[in-house]
Amino acid sequence: MLSPGKPFPLGATPSQQGINFALAAPSAEAVDLCIFDTTGNNEQQRLSLKEQTDGIWHGHLSSGKPGLVYAYRVHGPWNPKTGHRFNPSKLLLDPYAREITGTYDGRDLFLGHDPANPEKRDPRDNAAVALKARVATPLAPAATAGHARIAPGDRVLYELHVKGQTKLNPAVPAPLRGTYAGLAEPAVLDHLQRLGVTTLSLMPVQHRADEPRLLRMGLSNYWGYNTIGWFAPEARYWSGRPGTTPASEFRAMADAIHARGMELVIDVVYNHSAESDELGPTLSMRGIDNALYYHLRTDDRSLYENWAGTGNCLNLGEPRVLQLVMDSLRFWACEMGVDGFRFDLAPVLGRADAQRGFDPRAPFFAAIAQDPVLSRTLLIAEPWDIGPGGYRLGEFPPGWLEWNDRYRDTQRGFWLRQAHRDDRSNLGDFAHRFAASSTEFAHRGRAPTASVNFITAHDGFTLRDLVSYDERHNLANGENNRDGHGHNLSNNCGAEGPSDDPAVLALRTRLQRALLATLMLSQGTPMLLAGDELGHSQQGNNNAYCQDNDTTWLAWIGTSAPGSEAARLGAFIARLAALRREAPALRSTRWWPAEPAPDDSSSPGIRWLRPDGEPMTPADWNDTGTALAIHFGHGTTAKEGDGSSSWLVMVNAGAQAVSFTLPPGAWLLCLSTDPEADTGDGPRALEGSAQVPFSSIGIART
């Protein structure tokens, strides 16, 4: 029997007295709590939640214990034209489920509407196969809930996929490959720390449901951007070891990362759900209270706003939906040990309604800013979607970081097109992005670290493919090669795809190193893509979202062999990261000024120089030239070992070597991106000038 219970907290909350259930469904007429056996296949009890307080249906089950499997049936009108899609024949997953059992397989039994007539309700019962929640034992609070651990100027992000990172890694025990536990293995974290990574940015780890189209083709949403359970770690990344759960294994992974002094960020998808558009399945919120949870079109409430391109958008303008998101974020920060979040298609979160559009003061941003836990986490926005006015780079609130795609495109264009003398970017564009894109970010007190600089990310070509392919090769995705970005900015460095030509391979290596050096030396927050340090290729697939196979799994065999290309590239990135740590100017969280502050060596002067050593002029900035130098720390007194050295970054993206006249001082060349010139023998003295080979960078210090 159910007692009245309480309308808070939402979800299923176990205690020594039983379990309290609370579900937000203000438009519902009745709610049934359905109890299943441990397999989740057989409905054993159906209990009516008699109490409803302010739109929250609630009840307390004194006999309930952790491990109990449950779902809801919600009664109400079926009237899509008014936004209501209640269907008690369909079992509904609690949006607050901490652990999810069952698998959505795409069959039409999951549809709330009649497959032959979407205007009618489908009467078939799907209880045996529906997704259900299992009541989980709460984890202890994290040691430092919501506290980002790395100083902003020291942060180096590394975007990875939990499964792809270790599925083929021979240094990980076979039963743990592709799992949370595998990612926590010492060999994996050792590798990342050797690279200089401070912050792991995991692609989505919240429970997902795969799209029916992919399921029909035998594929899955490998990337995971199709969430249906915002409190449940994705069980597909759980090892299944006895005595563990997906949540406990994730938390152990977080603890292992923190033990290394590193941060953990997760990619979260609160802009839409896996229920898709009006023809999609009824899995959870659509059947609980469709008109509450989703943005519906004002001209026809049977249809959904589709600013994410996935069929629907969650309505964070509704307080209960905003509460769902905030409760979810606090759960991951406080119980799961997450230090920050990367928000997929974040402009959707800033649209309280279709009429007002994106607003950096929207309820979601206000709620984050005042929250004592979440306001201290690392907050990263993907600042675009496909909605009206959907491109919002630089417009997120102070304290937020943003993926800077204009940095990506400018640096790709500068280095890769220059190598082929094609459609050159000018030097001003290069410098503006190198200096953290002040036009977009230098306002409202925002720091240069707000710009997340990247050359590659999960969405697009890998670094190896960027210098190897002219066009996408996405036929395996089943969309006739129409998906993903089309033409590559890069050209193919001499040959399309794999090549055995030593000259082609040497040029590709040279350009990868130049791009990586630009990334690690630029002002802002650098982000590396997992596998780029290994030369990972996806064979030209630049939208491998549905490829759960060796297209996306990182190939580790042979990458650590001494002298291998992967080993050399990884060692090169590690040297870049060490150089970044050594040079305060490169880690500055203040905008690079023209001159240093008299009493502040952490705010060095910076001069932009031509190769002849003279200052850049306005005409030079508008030139489509290929070479310039950046002089950091001029005017300061250099002292050996105190970090106050002057630094000179000499950039040559042209097809011929360039001689740079050095500023006064005793200069040492400490790194070159040119594979032939970079012997790794340590710094060497320079006398008056430095020869920088084609398509490369030289870094010198006093």
TrEMBL record:
<keyword id="KW-0326">Glycosidase</keyword>
<dbReference type="InterPro" id="IPR011837">
    <property type="entry name" value="Glycogen_debranch_GlgX"/>
</dbReference>
<keyword id="KW-0378">Hydrolase</keyword>
<dbReference type="Pfam" id="PF02922">
    <property type="entry name" value="CBM_48"/>
</dbReference>
<dbReference type="InterPro" id="IPR006047">
    <property type="entry name" value="GH13_cat_dom"/>
</dbReference>
<dbReference type="InterPro" id="IPR013783">
    <property type="entry name" value="Ig-like_fold"/>
</dbReference>
<feature type="region of interest" description="Disordered">
    <location>
        <begin position="475"/>
        <end position="497"/>
    </location>
</feature>
<dbReference type="Pfam" id="PF00128">
    <property type="entry name" value="Alpha-amylase"/>
</dbReference>
<dbReference type="InterPro" id="IPR044505">
    <property type="entry name" value="GlgX_Isoamylase_N_E_set"/>
</dbReference>
<feature type="domain" description="Glycosyl hydrolase family 13 catalytic">
    <location>
        <begin position="155"/>
        <end position="580"/>
    </location>
</feature>
<comment type="similarity">
    <text>Belongs to the glycosyl hydrolase 13 family.</text>
</comment>
<dbReference type="InterPro" id="IPR017853">
    <property type="entry name" value="GH"/>
</dbReference>
<dbReference type="InterPro" id="IPR004193">
    <property type="entry name" value="Glyco_hydro_13_N"/>
</dbReference>
<dbReference type="InterPro" id="IPR013780">
    <property type="entry name" value="Glyco_hydro_b"/>
</dbReference>
<feature type="compositionally biased region" description="Basic and acidic residues">
    <location>
        <begin position="475"/>
        <end position="486"/>
    </location>
</feature>
<protein>
    <submittedName>
        <fullName>Glycogen debranching enzyme GlgX</fullName>
    </submittedName>
</protein>
<dbReference type="GO" id="GO:0004135">
    <property type="term" value="F:amylo-alpha-1,6-glucosidase activity"/>
</dbReference>
<dbReference type="GO" id="GO:0005980">
    <property type="term" value="P:glycogen catabolic process"/>
</dbReference>
<dbReference type="InterPro" id="IPR014756">
    <property type="entry name" value="Ig_E-set"/>
</dbReference>
